[in-house]
Amino acid sequence: MQLYQEQTLRISNSLTGKKEIFKPINEGHVGMYVCGPTVYSNVHLGNCRTFMSFDMIFRYLRHLGYKVRYVRNITDAGHLVDDADEGEDKIAKKARLEKIEPMEVVQRYTVDFHYILDQFNFLPPSIEPTATGHIIEQLGIIKEILEKGYAYEVNGSVYFDVKKFNEKYEYGKLSGRKLEDMIANTRELAAQSEKKNPQDFALWKKAEPQHIMRWPSPWGDGFPGWHLECTAMSTKYLGETFDIHGGGMDLKFPHHECEIAQAEASNGHSPVNYWMHANMLTMNGKKMAKSTGNNILPGEIFSGENDILSKPFTPSVVRFFMMQAHYTSILDLSNDALLASEKGYHRLMDAIDNLKDLPTAEVSNFDIPEWRQKCYDAMNDDFNTPILIAHLFEGVKHINLIKEGKEKITDADKVLLQQTINDFVFDVLGLEHKTESNQDSNKLQGVVELLIQLRNEARSNRDFATSDKIRDQLSAMGIQLKDGKEGTTFSVS
Ligand code: AMP
Ligand code: ZN
To answer: Signal sequence span per UniProt (predicted)?
Structure first.
């Protein structure tokens, strides 16, 4: 029997606005699609939050015993600087500025994306398709939508006819908008616009001669509209209707609304049963974003090299910080919040270390099976990681009391406690306990302190050749010594 048969998972469905019991289309299997990054710059911590929320969701679904096919794409074409189908392709623009090939931009930032996610201990998705690898599928969907009469061609571009679509279907049902209101609130189209209505969006755009990223099509050379790739890739790998589609809240409109419209227009039915939206990471109370410069890179957090930080933080501490908030809540990043998470993370890891050597007794004071179920109840309630963490700390409290001899635990309960902590801390939350690297850094500290002591002795013997040699050679290795009133300290770059 699989765990999912014992546990009732509820998911907040953005489409209905309700928390619903999760029922996959095929028993025991889950198809999940998450919009991936547009690889034109380094991934910032805000992007990482959304992907981490879905990594945790992927992990919990797997933990429950589901066979999950998790598709997270790479957007390497079609995402324009301006969301209203105008302006340059973000990747082509970067390539022009850096005087490199668009595919060099894609390669550089795809590698960065994977490297960062790896440091955060993400599980790789089952399939990571690219937009440029699915041009043929995208052309196929455009043809279908044209045949059904929900798109029109103008001068080598193809646009989705939102008004026509809205006569039979409901454009705006995901974001809770009404087409009439959208029309009332938009200005008239500029005279040069090819669109019939401002709400229409591009399925295919004609490539001007200077546009490098171009593919042949029945309407001439061009490139696909941004929303289309996700419809093409999700349909190809998960089917016309699949279980879960996720992304950041900011993608709900227009991106996901357009995905629904494209799927319904081409095959007549709704593509997704559960729409899930992760909330934003903010900094100084404002959304973290590439475009505004209000962002921080994961590397800056790991090295501590950013003015808002007093020190570096490890990937696991940052991951713990993220998991302390529910994925649908806004989370604000600050040095104080990270310091508090670091304390909590160490308290949890110390308890895990102590757990191994806990003495056992004939009786337990703490009802472990009940506590274990509370951990599941938290996760079953729309992946409520902050409540789960509160229960884990309840476990920590008892571990500490047992260690101090103030409470007791049986052998069997100790095994269950250990298994539950391992399941939730490492498998579901994806935290890592890097004792080896902690030990390494303790060793490094000891060695450098010894060298500082030898350098001080050399200096007091006026042996400056030796003292300088120690300082310079450490510096060449990236270890800087700093002499101050309180003595010599060091930093590692
Ligand atoms: P992009 O690379 O811009 O297409 O964004 C990739 C993902 O990051 C999308 O799912 C966005 O919704 C998400 N995202 C962007 N900014 C933030 C933020 N400040 N907090 C959380 N997620 C974000
Ligand atoms: Zn998408």
So the answer is: none
**Residue 276: predicted pLDDT:** 98
Question: Average pLDDT, stretch 298-315?
Answer: 94
Q: Which ligand is nearest to the CA of 227?
A: 2
191 falls in which pLDDT band (50, 70, 90)? low
Which numbered ligand comes closest to the C-alpha of 54? 1
Q: List residues forming the annotated binding site.
A: 35, 230, 255, 259, 290
pLDDT at 435 (0 to 100): 62
Å from CA of 47 to ligand 1 middle: 4
Closest C-alpha to ligand 1, atom 17: 46
Centre of ligand 1 from the C-alpha of residue 118, in Å: 18
Tell me the pLDDT band of 88, cut-offs 50, 70 and 90: confident
| Count of domains forming the chain | 3
Q: Give the Å distance between the CA of 11 and the centre of ligand 1.
A: 21
Mean pLDDT of 39-58: 97
What is the arithmetic mean of pLDDT over 97-125? 96
Annotation: binding site for ATP: 290
Q: In terms of pLDDT, which residue wins out, 184 or 70?
A: 70
Q: What is the extent of the structural domain holding 477?
A: 436-492
Among 249, 250, 296, 332, the mutation site with the greatest number of ligand 1 atoms within 8 A of its Cβ is: 250
What digits encode the pLDDT tens for the residues 163-179?
Answer: 999 999 999 999 999 99
Show which of 428, 450, 477 is a domain's final residue. Answer: 428
**Whose C-alpha lies nearest to ligand 1, atom 9?**
248
13 found inside a domain: no
Residues with CB under 6 A from ligand 1: 35, 37-38, 46-47, 49-50, 247-248, 250-251, 280-281, 287-289
Q: What pLDDT is recorded for position 279?
A: 98
321: domain CATH number is 1.10.730
Q: Which of 44, 50, 331 to mutate to test the pocket of ligand 1 (most atoms within 8 A of CB)?
A: 50
CA separation (Å) from 96 to 85, 93, 101, 109, 132? 19, 5, 8, 16, 19
Over its C-alpha atoms, the chain yields an Rg (Å, rounded) of: 27
Entry pTM: 0.89
Local confidence band at 476 (pLDDT 50, 70, 90 cut-offs): confident
The Cα–Cα gap between 34 and 72 comes to 5
228 alpha carbon – ligand 2 mean position (Å) = 8
375 and 473 part of one domain: no
Instruction: Look at ligand 1, atom 2, and give the residue with the nearest C-alpha.
Output: 37
Are 185 and 242 found together in one domain?
A: yes
